[in-house]
Task: structure prediction
Amino acid sequence: MQTRFFPSRLETLTEISLFVTQAAEKAGLDDSAVYAIELAVDEAATNIIEHAYQGEDQGEICCTLEIIQEGLKVILQDWGAPFDPLEVPEPTLGVPLERVQSSGLGLFFIRKLMDEVRFEFSDEKGNTVTMIKRKK
Amino acid sequence: MDIGITHYKRCVVVKTQGRVDGSNAPELKVAFKELVDNGHFNLVFDMSEINFMASAGWWVLIDTQKTCKQLNRGEVVLANIDKSIQDSLNLVGMSSYFKAFDDITSAVGSF
Result:
C-alpha cells in the first residue's frame, strides 16, 4: 500500500495520474483498465478541487493505492465541504445530443468506469471515495 | 496547450497533444468557440497525439457538436482516437455522439 498527498491544484492532475497508472500497471491490469482508472481518478480529483475545496490551493488530496488480488483499490480523501453524491443530478446520456447536460458528467464517468465506488463522509476523516477496478 | 488549426476547403482540422483535462479544457473551448463564431461548422478533431481526455474535454466537444448540428449546419467528427480512449467512450455510452474515422484523410473527406 502506498500513500501520497497532492496539493489541490488542477495542474497536479498529471502527477496524480502518473502515480495511479504506475500502480495499475503493476497490479496487472490491461491497457483499457489502466486508462479507465486514470480517467476515474482524474474525475474524482477534479471534483475534489472544484466542489469539495471550491477552488485551487484550498487543501490537500490524499491518494492511497492498494494492489489487491483482484486488481487495484484507490482511495481519495479530502477535507473540503461534505460531498453527497446523491445531490448531484445524473447526467442524461443515452438521450438525443441536444438534451445532454454537463452537470454530473465526472461522477457518471467514475461510476461507469470503476467496478466498485463508495463515498463516505465523517467530521474526522473528511470525504473519502473508495474505488476498485478488477482484472477481467 | 498548443492547438493547431488547419483550414481545408470544406472543413477545419483542430489538433492538440497530450492530456486534455480540467486544467486546459478551457483553452480548447476558446479555440472551438472562435471557429464556430466565425461560421466554421464542419470540424475534425485530430486525436492522433492525445493520450488522455477527461470529461471536461468531452464536454467541450459535446457543446460544440450541439452548436454545429443546429439547423444541420455541420458537425464535429473525430479522427485517430487512441484505443483506450475509444474503449472508455464506449463504456460511458458517448460514442454515438460523434462519427469516428481511422485517419485524417477519411475524416476530412467525409465533408
User: Anything to note?
Assistant: The beta strands of chain A are 2-7, 60-68, 71-78, 116-122, 126-134. Chain A has a mean pLDDT of 92. Residues 31-52 of chain A form the longest helix (22 residues).
